[in-house]
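Sample 1 of the test manifest.
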Amino acid sequence: MTRDELLYYLGSVREGELYGLFKAADIVRRRYCGDEVHLRGIVEFSNYCVRNCLYCGLRRGNDKLRRYRMGVDEVYEVAKRAAGAGLKTIVLQSGEDPYYTLSELCEMVERIKGLDVAVTLSIGERSYQDYRALRLAGADRYLLKFETSDERLYALLKPDSSYANRFKCLEHLSSLGYQVGAGNMVGLPYQSLDSLADDILLFEELELDMVGIGPFIPHPDTPLGGFDCGKIVATLKVVALTRILTRNAHIPATTAVATVDPEGRRKALCCGANVVMPNVTPPVYASDYRIYPKRARWEDSVTKAKGLVCSLGRSVGRGYGDTLKERGRKEGFTPP
Ligand code: 5AD
Ligand code: SF4
Protein backbone atom coordinates (compact mmCIF):
# COMPACT_ATOMS: atom_id res chain seq x y z
CA MET A 1 0.00 0.00 0.00
CA THR A 2 1.36 3.43 -0.91
CA ARG A 3 1.44 6.45 1.36
CA ASP A 4 -1.37 7.99 -0.73
CA GLU A 5 -3.51 4.91 -0.23
CA LEU A 6 -2.86 5.02 3.50
CA LEU A 7 -3.94 8.66 3.54
CA TYR A 8 -7.00 7.85 1.50
CA TYR A 9 -8.22 5.26 3.99
CA LEU A 10 -7.27 7.37 7.00
CA GLY A 11 -9.51 10.12 5.60
CA SER A 12 -12.33 7.92 4.38
CA VAL A 13 -15.75 8.05 6.02
CA ARG A 14 -17.46 5.65 3.61
CA GLU A 15 -18.84 2.73 5.55
CA GLY A 16 -18.56 0.22 2.72
CA GLU A 17 -14.97 1.16 2.08
CA LEU A 18 -14.02 0.83 5.73
CA TYR A 19 -15.81 -2.49 5.98
CA GLY A 20 -13.65 -3.66 3.05
CA LEU A 21 -10.50 -2.37 4.74
CA PHE A 22 -11.29 -4.12 8.03
CA LYS A 23 -12.16 -7.33 6.21
CA ALA A 24 -8.90 -7.22 4.25
CA ALA A 25 -6.92 -6.71 7.47
CA ASP A 26 -8.71 -9.69 9.02
CA ILE A 27 -7.74 -11.84 6.04
CA VAL A 28 -4.10 -10.71 6.25
CA ARG A 29 -4.10 -11.45 10.00
CA ARG A 30 -5.47 -14.91 9.40
CA ARG A 31 -3.01 -15.70 6.65
CA TYR A 32 0.15 -14.42 8.38
CA CYS A 33 -0.66 -14.93 12.07
CA GLY A 34 -3.28 -17.66 12.07
CA ASP A 35 -6.27 -17.90 14.40
CA GLU A 36 -4.34 -18.05 17.67
CA VAL A 37 -4.72 -15.07 19.98
CA HIS A 38 -1.82 -14.68 22.40
CA LEU A 39 -2.51 -13.62 25.98
CA ARG A 40 0.05 -11.52 27.84
CA GLY A 41 -0.42 -10.75 31.53
CA ILE A 42 0.56 -7.21 32.47
CA VAL A 43 1.90 -6.36 35.91
CA GLU A 44 2.02 -2.60 36.46
CA PHE A 45 4.55 -2.63 39.26
CA SER A 46 5.16 1.10 39.84
CA ASN A 47 3.26 4.23 38.86
CA TYR A 48 6.11 6.61 39.68
CA CYS A 49 7.57 8.41 36.69
CA VAL A 50 10.35 10.98 36.34
CA ARG A 51 9.00 12.29 33.04
CA ASN A 52 6.32 14.85 32.44
CA CYS A 53 4.56 13.84 29.21
CA LEU A 54 1.65 16.20 28.67
CA TYR A 55 -0.92 13.46 27.99
CA CYS A 56 -0.14 10.99 30.76
CA GLY A 57 -1.64 10.69 34.24
CA LEU A 58 1.60 9.21 35.61
CA ARG A 59 3.56 12.39 34.74
CA ARG A 60 5.63 13.64 37.66
CA GLY A 61 3.68 16.91 37.72
CA ASN A 62 0.44 15.11 38.61
CA ASP A 63 0.37 15.46 42.38
CA LYS A 64 -3.21 14.17 42.63
CA LEU A 65 -2.13 10.61 41.91
CA ARG A 66 -1.53 8.22 44.80
CA ARG A 67 1.77 6.58 44.00
CA TYR A 68 2.76 2.97 44.68
CA ARG A 69 5.63 0.62 44.12
CA MET A 70 5.52 -3.15 44.35
CA GLY A 71 8.47 -4.99 45.83
CA VAL A 72 10.35 -7.68 43.92
CA ASP A 73 8.76 -10.50 45.97
CA GLU A 74 5.30 -9.07 45.42
CA VAL A 75 5.82 -8.79 41.66
CA TYR A 76 7.09 -12.36 41.60
CA GLU A 77 4.01 -13.65 43.47
CA VAL A 78 1.69 -11.89 41.02
CA ALA A 79 3.60 -13.31 38.06
CA LYS A 80 3.46 -16.78 39.62
CA ARG A 81 -0.31 -16.58 39.92
CA ALA A 82 -0.60 -15.38 36.31
CA ALA A 83 1.64 -18.20 35.10
CA GLY A 84 -0.52 -20.60 37.14
CA ALA A 85 -3.56 -19.30 35.26
CA GLY A 86 -1.87 -20.39 32.03
CA LEU A 87 -0.32 -17.14 30.80
CA LYS A 88 2.90 -17.70 28.85
CA THR A 89 4.06 -14.08 28.76
CA ILE A 90 4.45 -11.68 31.66
CA VAL A 91 4.76 -7.99 30.81
CA LEU A 92 6.45 -5.90 33.50
CA GLN A 93 5.39 -2.29 33.07
CA SER A 94 6.01 0.89 35.05
CA GLY A 95 6.63 4.60 34.69
CA GLU A 96 10.28 5.56 34.37
CA ASP A 97 11.14 4.92 37.98
CA PRO A 98 14.84 5.07 38.96
CA TYR A 99 14.00 3.79 42.44
CA TYR A 100 14.61 0.19 41.40
CA THR A 101 18.27 -0.64 41.02
CA LEU A 102 19.42 -2.46 37.93
CA SER A 103 20.19 -5.51 40.03
CA GLU A 104 16.67 -5.51 41.50
CA LEU A 105 15.19 -5.34 38.01
CA CYS A 106 17.48 -8.15 36.85
CA GLU A 107 16.46 -10.22 39.86
CA MET A 108 12.80 -9.62 39.03
CA VAL A 109 13.36 -10.83 35.46
CA GLU A 110 15.48 -13.82 36.48
CA ARG A 111 13.00 -15.08 39.04
CA ILE A 112 10.03 -14.70 36.74
CA LYS A 113 11.88 -16.46 33.92
CA GLY A 114 12.06 -19.41 36.31
CA LEU A 115 8.27 -19.71 35.90
CA ASP A 116 8.71 -20.89 32.31
CA VAL A 117 7.26 -17.76 30.70
CA ALA A 118 8.46 -15.15 28.24
CA VAL A 119 9.20 -11.80 29.88
CA THR A 120 8.47 -8.45 28.26
CA LEU A 121 9.75 -5.24 29.79
CA SER A 122 8.06 -1.87 29.37
CA ILE A 123 9.99 0.45 31.65
CA GLY A 124 11.05 3.24 29.33
CA GLU A 125 14.32 4.69 28.10
CA ARG A 126 17.49 3.33 29.66
CA SER A 127 21.15 2.99 28.74
CA TYR A 128 22.50 0.35 26.39
CA GLN A 129 24.29 -1.24 29.35
CA ASP A 130 21.04 -1.54 31.31
CA TYR A 131 19.21 -3.05 28.34
CA ARG A 132 22.08 -5.48 27.91
CA ALA A 133 22.07 -6.54 31.57
CA LEU A 134 18.31 -7.05 31.52
CA ARG A 135 18.56 -9.07 28.33
CA LEU A 136 21.25 -11.25 29.91
CA ALA A 137 19.01 -11.66 32.95
CA GLY A 138 16.52 -13.27 30.60
CA ALA A 139 14.19 -10.57 29.27
CA ASP A 140 12.89 -11.62 25.85
CA ARG A 141 10.98 -8.59 24.65
CA TYR A 142 10.73 -4.84 25.15
CA LEU A 143 7.93 -2.36 24.50
CA LEU A 144 8.81 1.26 23.85
CA LYS A 145 6.13 3.17 21.98
CA PHE A 146 7.32 6.17 19.99
CA GLU A 147 3.80 7.64 20.40
CA THR A 148 4.05 9.79 17.26
CA SER A 149 6.47 9.92 14.33
CA ASP A 150 5.96 13.68 14.10
CA GLU A 151 9.09 15.12 15.66
CA ARG A 152 7.56 18.50 16.44
CA LEU A 153 4.49 17.00 18.03
CA TYR A 154 6.74 14.62 19.99
CA ALA A 155 8.73 17.56 21.36
CA LEU A 156 5.51 19.30 22.36
CA LEU A 157 3.98 16.25 24.08
CA LYS A 158 7.17 14.99 25.70
CA PRO A 159 8.97 18.20 26.67
CA ASP A 160 11.71 16.52 28.68
CA SER A 161 12.43 13.73 26.20
CA SER A 162 14.47 13.37 23.05
CA TYR A 163 12.96 11.99 19.87
CA ALA A 164 16.40 10.91 18.66
CA ASN A 165 17.09 9.03 21.88
CA ARG A 166 13.78 7.17 21.64
CA PHE A 167 14.81 5.73 18.30
CA LYS A 168 18.35 5.14 19.53
CA CYS A 169 16.83 3.03 22.33
CA LEU A 170 14.76 1.05 19.82
CA GLU A 171 17.92 0.39 17.82
CA HIS A 172 19.82 -0.74 20.91
CA LEU A 173 17.01 -3.10 21.90
CA SER A 174 16.92 -4.61 18.47
CA SER A 175 20.69 -5.08 18.33
CA LEU A 176 20.58 -6.84 21.70
CA GLY A 177 18.23 -9.45 20.31
CA TYR A 178 15.06 -8.31 22.05
CA GLN A 179 11.80 -8.81 20.24
CA VAL A 180 10.86 -5.16 19.97
CA GLY A 181 7.48 -3.48 20.22
CA ALA A 182 6.66 0.13 19.54
CA GLY A 183 3.40 1.93 18.94
CA ASN A 184 1.50 5.17 18.85
CA MET A 185 -1.57 7.02 20.01
CA VAL A 186 -4.36 7.99 17.63
CA GLY A 187 -6.25 11.27 17.90
CA LEU A 188 -3.57 13.23 19.74
CA PRO A 189 -4.06 17.01 19.81
CA TYR A 190 -2.50 18.56 16.68
CA GLN A 191 -1.90 15.14 15.08
CA SER A 192 -2.40 15.14 11.31
CA LEU A 193 -3.46 12.27 9.05
CA ASP A 194 -0.10 12.71 7.33
CA SER A 195 1.73 11.95 10.54
CA LEU A 196 -0.50 8.91 11.17
CA ALA A 197 0.44 7.61 7.72
CA ASP A 198 4.09 8.16 8.66
CA ASP A 199 3.57 6.26 11.95
CA ILE A 200 2.29 3.25 10.00
CA LEU A 201 5.13 3.42 7.45
CA LEU A 202 7.59 3.60 10.32
CA PHE A 203 6.07 0.50 11.96
CA GLU A 204 6.77 -1.30 8.71
CA GLU A 205 10.24 0.16 8.21
CA LEU A 206 11.38 -0.74 11.74
CA GLU A 207 10.27 -4.36 11.14
CA LEU A 208 8.72 -4.39 14.58
CA ASP A 209 7.81 -7.64 16.28
CA MET A 210 4.90 -5.92 18.06
CA VAL A 211 2.89 -2.75 17.51
CA GLY A 212 0.59 -1.27 20.19
CA ILE A 213 -2.02 1.19 18.95
CA GLY A 214 -4.46 3.04 21.18
CA PRO A 215 -6.65 6.13 21.10
CA PHE A 216 -5.56 9.23 23.02
CA ILE A 217 -7.79 9.62 26.07
CA PRO A 218 -7.73 13.04 27.78
CA HIS A 219 -6.87 12.96 31.47
CA PRO A 220 -8.33 15.87 33.49
CA ASP A 221 -5.26 16.14 35.73
CA THR A 222 -2.92 16.75 32.78
CA PRO A 223 -2.38 19.79 30.54
CA LEU A 224 -4.26 18.01 27.72
CA GLY A 225 -7.38 17.35 29.81
CA GLY A 226 -9.51 19.68 27.67
CA PHE A 227 -8.84 18.05 24.29
CA ASP A 228 -11.07 15.58 22.46
CA CYS A 229 -10.75 11.86 22.86
CA GLY A 230 -9.32 9.75 20.02
CA LYS A 231 -12.04 8.02 18.00
CA ILE A 232 -12.55 4.28 17.90
CA VAL A 233 -12.97 4.16 14.11
CA ALA A 234 -9.77 6.14 13.54
CA THR A 235 -7.94 3.75 15.86
CA LEU A 236 -9.35 0.67 14.09
CA LYS A 237 -8.25 2.13 10.76
CA VAL A 238 -4.68 2.44 12.05
CA VAL A 239 -4.84 -1.14 13.42
CA ALA A 240 -6.12 -2.47 10.08
CA LEU A 241 -3.61 -0.54 7.97
CA THR A 242 -0.77 -1.57 10.27
CA ARG A 243 -1.80 -5.20 9.91
CA ILE A 244 -1.87 -4.91 6.12
CA LEU A 245 1.58 -3.29 5.97
CA THR A 246 3.42 -5.27 8.65
CA ARG A 247 1.66 -8.57 7.89
CA ASN A 248 2.90 -10.65 10.81
CA ALA A 249 3.63 -8.18 13.60
CA HIS A 250 1.88 -8.97 16.88
CA ILE A 251 -0.82 -6.35 17.40
CA PRO A 252 -2.71 -6.18 20.71
CA ALA A 253 -6.34 -5.19 21.13
CA THR A 254 -5.37 -2.57 23.72
CA THR A 255 -6.99 -1.54 26.98
CA ALA A 256 -7.25 1.99 25.60
CA VAL A 257 -9.43 0.68 22.74
CA ALA A 258 -11.61 -1.09 25.30
CA THR A 259 -11.85 2.11 27.32
CA VAL A 260 -13.33 4.19 24.49
CA ASP A 261 -15.67 1.41 23.33
CA PRO A 262 -16.99 -1.51 25.42
CA GLU A 263 -16.76 -3.67 22.29
CA GLY A 264 -13.34 -2.23 21.41
CA ARG A 265 -11.30 -5.36 22.02
CA ARG A 266 -13.61 -7.51 19.95
CA LYS A 267 -13.60 -4.96 17.14
CA ALA A 268 -9.79 -4.67 17.13
CA LEU A 269 -9.45 -8.48 17.07
CA CYS A 270 -11.68 -8.49 13.98
CA CYS A 271 -9.62 -5.97 12.03
CA GLY A 272 -6.05 -7.03 12.51
CA ALA A 273 -5.24 -7.57 16.19
CA ASN A 274 -4.04 -10.97 17.43
CA VAL A 275 -3.02 -10.32 21.04
CA VAL A 276 -4.91 -9.54 24.25
CA MET A 277 -3.21 -8.29 27.38
CA PRO A 278 -5.19 -9.12 30.52
CA ASN A 279 -4.22 -6.93 33.43
CA VAL A 280 -3.01 -9.02 36.37
CA THR A 281 -1.96 -6.09 38.59
CA PRO A 282 -3.51 -6.54 42.05
CA PRO A 283 -6.72 -4.42 42.14
CA VAL A 284 -5.44 -2.31 45.06
CA TYR A 285 -2.77 -0.94 42.75
CA ALA A 286 -4.46 -1.19 39.36
CA SER A 287 -6.90 1.63 40.16
CA ASP A 288 -3.91 3.94 40.78
CA TYR A 289 -2.24 3.10 37.47
CA ARG A 290 -4.28 5.93 35.97
CA ILE A 291 -2.49 6.69 32.72
CA TYR A 292 -5.88 7.97 31.58
CA PRO A 293 -9.25 8.08 33.36
CA LYS A 294 -12.00 5.42 33.42
CA ARG A 295 -9.57 2.78 32.25
CA ALA A 296 -11.51 -0.33 31.23
CA ARG A 297 -11.54 -2.75 34.15
CA TRP A 298 -11.67 -6.43 33.48
CA GLU A 299 -12.46 -8.46 36.57
CA ASP A 300 -11.07 -12.00 36.21
CA SER A 301 -9.35 -10.68 33.13
CA VAL A 302 -7.75 -13.97 32.13
CA THR A 303 -11.06 -15.85 32.12
CA LYS A 304 -12.76 -12.99 30.25
CA ALA A 305 -9.97 -12.82 27.70
CA LYS A 306 -10.22 -16.54 27.02
CA GLY A 307 -14.01 -16.19 26.69
CA LEU A 308 -13.65 -13.36 24.20
CA VAL A 309 -11.17 -15.30 22.07
CA CYS A 310 -13.39 -18.41 22.01
CA SER A 311 -16.51 -16.37 21.18
CA LEU A 312 -14.75 -15.26 17.99
CA GLY A 313 -14.12 -18.87 17.00
CA ARG A 314 -10.39 -18.41 17.57
CA SER A 315 -8.06 -20.22 19.96
CA VAL A 316 -5.84 -19.08 22.79
CA GLY A 317 -2.15 -19.28 21.80
CA ARG A 318 -0.52 -22.28 23.41
CA GLY A 319 3.13 -21.35 23.00
CA TYR A 320 5.00 -18.29 24.26
CA GLY A 321 3.68 -16.20 21.40
CA ASP A 322 7.14 -15.24 20.20
CA THR A 323 7.69 -13.05 17.20
CA LEU A 324 6.51 -14.26 13.81
CA LYS A 325 9.24 -12.27 12.05
CA GLU A 326 12.15 -14.25 10.64
CA ARG A 327 14.47 -11.38 11.51
CA GLY A 328 13.30 -11.54 15.07
CA ARG A 329 14.02 -15.21 15.72
CA LYS A 330 16.79 -14.98 18.21
CA GLU A 331 17.04 -18.41 19.80
CA GLY A 332 20.45 -18.99 21.25
CA PHE A 333 21.34 -15.39 20.55
CA THR A 334 24.08 -13.91 22.72
CA PRO A 335 23.88 -10.13 23.07
CA PRO A 336 26.99 -8.28 21.85
N1 5AD B 1 -4.33 8.26 26.45
C1 5AD B 1 -3.99 7.10 25.83
N2 5AD B 1 -2.86 6.46 26.06
C2 5AD B 1 -2.00 7.01 26.93
N3 5AD B 1 -0.80 6.63 27.33
C3 5AD B 1 -0.34 7.53 28.23
N4 5AD B 1 -1.24 8.50 28.40
C4 5AD B 1 -2.28 8.20 27.59
C5 5AD B 1 -3.51 8.85 27.33
N5 5AD B 1 -3.86 9.98 27.92
C6 5AD B 1 -0.09 5.45 26.84
C7 5AD B 1 1.10 5.85 26.02
C8 5AD B 1 2.28 5.36 26.81
C9 5AD B 1 1.72 4.42 27.83
C10 5AD B 1 2.36 4.59 29.15
O1 5AD B 1 0.35 4.71 27.93
O2 5AD B 1 1.07 5.26 24.73
O3 5AD B 1 3.21 4.66 26.02
FE1 SF4 C 1 6.05 8.52 32.24
FE2 SF4 C 1 5.49 7.00 30.09
FE3 SF4 C 1 3.60 8.50 31.26
FE4 SF4 C 1 5.54 9.69 29.90
S1 SF4 C 1 3.98 8.28 29.04
S2 SF4 C 1 4.77 10.32 31.92
S3 SF4 C 1 7.27 8.37 30.36
S4 SF4 C 1 4.63 6.76 32.17
